């Protein structure tokens, strides 16, 4: 009876009930069954308190800054800079796609935004230059998962809020893993490009051409530097840094580059409000759900299960990675963090895993899940951009997924990969 809510929640997912309602209905039914109807009020209070939080205000600002940059045509500047840097390599446009994702990660922090913005621009260009459509879609989808890993990341802000972990520490921990994913994807691209004889994107850029591309891309690239600099040095909180980023994005797109008109701000604000509302309601429901999880002693039960199999933390981490890989095939990254974080993190911490280390393991895992079939969200976005089936794109993505899973294992079992920078900066 103690885990009735968990099975009810799984049943709600199976029948297609929206996750936010499942996280509220399942504990509510268990309270009614156990005769604790008066605690339903507490569940609703936790829902409200989960939204009423100053640190959580960073998310709407973060979404707005990314939307302004995206709609303001900043993507094109980053693509041109990437092409000037590495467009002359074999398989140049595929490399440009990956490098653009790395650069774009600091602006949007969203895999879906990355796939949509870069895919709409680069997939047709890659196809025109001799790449197959499914390969172009596969590269775009595989590289887009870098977005939520390289800081600043909305997904990490979610985790930090729900699990009470330092946002700055998580951002610092994501730098090396994010770059490792990008570099690994480029290595796979080099191998496939030479094997399939893919073309270069352009001749090597002259110093003047590179200078022009850098001049246009320099100001947008300052956005993540400003945000991270403010947060990591302790000058301001993540919420204040996100607000600064919005102000900078407005000045950049409206005044300096004039790529946006004032009349375009209305739809951008409306889209941001809707997306933020969805995220905040989900977070509130997750806080209520996690409170019930703690009261039902589910983390302790999960810990006992792990200990019954093995007391070795590395064996437990391997099992968690397998679980998250399976979950990532069906559940979006945000809900996976909000649902499983309060259950798995206490169990892993009790086995000696550092909270920040487990946080980055989980964030990277569920992010890669966005590109994992059958329900990977970026696969569907890439499919809508190309018209190819999700199955074809997923099959073409296998080499990229294999290298991303290898990076996950490296992050998991070689702790300094993710913890070196947080320790250097004094976060842990």
What does this structure look like?
It contains 20 helices and no strands. The longest helix is centred in the middle third of the chain and has 31 residues, at 265-295. The protein has one domain. The chain is mainly α. α6 runs parallel beside α8 (133-144). It has helices at 4-14, 19-33, 40-51, 58-71, 74-86, 92-108, 111-128, 133-144, 154-163, 167-196, 207-232, 238-256, 265-295, 298-309, 313-328, 333-350, 355-368, 377-386, 390-413, 416-424. 51% of the residues are buried.
Describe the SSE topology.
Layout (H helix, E strand, L loop, with lengths): L3 H11 L4 H15 L6 H12 L6 H14 L2 H13 L5 H17 L2 H18 L4 H12 L9 H10 L3 H30 L10 H26 L5 H19 L8 H31 L2 H12 L3 H16 L4 H18 L4 H14 L8 H10 L3 H24 L2 H9 L4
